[in-house]
Amino acid sequence: DEDGAVRLEGETFVEARPGPGDRVARFAWRGDAWTVRVPPDVDGAFLQVRNLAGGRLWVVLRRRRSVWRRLAGPAARILADPLERRALPAPPAP
C-alpha cells in the first residue's frame, strides 16, 4: 500500500533495515514511526509485533551489511523462527 506495507491473508508485513550495530529498527505504520528491539547478531528475521494491528503485524528485518562484510565476512545469519516484540513510538528523527 502507500505506506509500504504488504498484506497477505490477514497478516501485514512492513520492512525495517537497521544498520550493522543498531539495537532497534525503525518502521512506519499508519503514518507514525515505531521502533522494535532487534537481535544484534542476525542479518534477517521476522518479528511479530503483538501490540499493533491485533498481533497481525510483522516487521521483516533486513540488516544493512557493509560491502566488506558481504565480500569477506561470514554468510548472512537469518533467523528461521519468528520472534515476538512490542513496538514503541519512535523518537523524532535527528
Written description of the protein model:
The chain is mainly β and 94 residues long. Helices cover 6% and strands 40% of the residues. The protein is built from one helix and eight strands; from the N terminus they run E-E-E-E-E-E-H-E-E. It has one helix at residues 67-72, and strands at residues 6-8, 11-16, 24-29, 32-37, 44-49, 57-62, 83-85, 88-89. Strands 1-2-6-5-7 form a five-stranded mixed β-sheet, with no helix packed on it. It has a three-stranded antiparallel β-sheet with strand order 3-4-8, with no helix packed on it. A hairpin with a 2-residue loop joins strand 1 (6-8) and strand 2 (11-16). It is globular, with a radius of gyration of 14 Å. The mean pLDDT is 83.
Counted beta strands: 8
Which residue ranges are poorly predicted, with pLDDT under 50 across at least 5 consecutive positions?
Answer: none
How do the SSEs run, as a string of H and E? Answer: EEEEEEHEE
State Rg: 14 Å
Q: How large is the count of helical segments?
A: 1
Helical residue percent?
Answer: under 10%
In short:
With 94 residues, the protein is mostly beta strands.
Topology:
Blueprint: E1 6-8, E2 11-16, E3 24-29, E4 32-37, E5 44-49, E6 57-62, H1 67-72, E7 83-85, E8 88-89
Parallel strand pairs: 2-6, 5-7
Antiparallel strand pairs: 1-2, 3-4, 4-8, 5-6
